[in-house]
Amino acid sequence: MALSDDIRLLANVPLFSGLGEDQLRLIAFGAERRHLASGQTLFREKSPAECAYVVASGDVALNATGRSGKSEVAGHAGPGTLLSELAMVTLVERKFTAVATQDSEVIRISRALFHRLLEEYPDIAAAVESRIRDNLAAMATQAAAMQHRFD
């Protein structure tokens, strides 16, 4: 896929919306594209997260261990979905096991690349921080709404 296609895809990721072409180009150029075969695991629940992924094509199942101790499908991630966004900022633990349900492509964004973006464009740091904060609040609300499934 061409760099311009990756830039277009990244521009549609909510966390990166509003970034300029130069900022998106920096991410797209520095990121790594990976192919996943159907059934291939991208990452495992509870493993340390050193990067985030944007699903470029295909579908990725997000599996989590339920209260019964069994893995349950918690959701799916399709094109344009950002997985593990906090990993771009700090070391966190993966909350899901991500498995491709079909041949898929992902874009890997390392923490070092994201920090470089913030260093080269400090004016966007506040906007990105605000979006991450908003995403965390929305995620907490969604988790609270699903708590009954795990009781």
Verbal overview:
The protein has 151 residues and is an alpha+beta fold. It has a single domain, classed as Jelly Rolls (Sandwich), CATH 2.60.120. The protein contains 4 helices and 10 strands. It has helices at residues 3-11, 21-30, 111-120, 125-146; strands spanning 32-36, 41-43, 48-49, 51-57, 60-65, 71-77, 82-83, 92-93, 97-100, 104-110. It has a 4-stranded antiparallel beta sheet with strand order 1-10-4-7. Strand 5 (60-65) and strand 6 form a beta hairpin. Helix 1 packs across helix 2. The longest helix has 22 residues, at 125-146. This is Cyclic nucleotide-binding domain-containing protein. Residues 15-118 form the Cyclic nucleotide-binding domain. Pfam families: cNMP_binding. One of its GO terms (molecular function) is DNA-binding transcription factor activity. It comes from Ferirhizobium litorale.
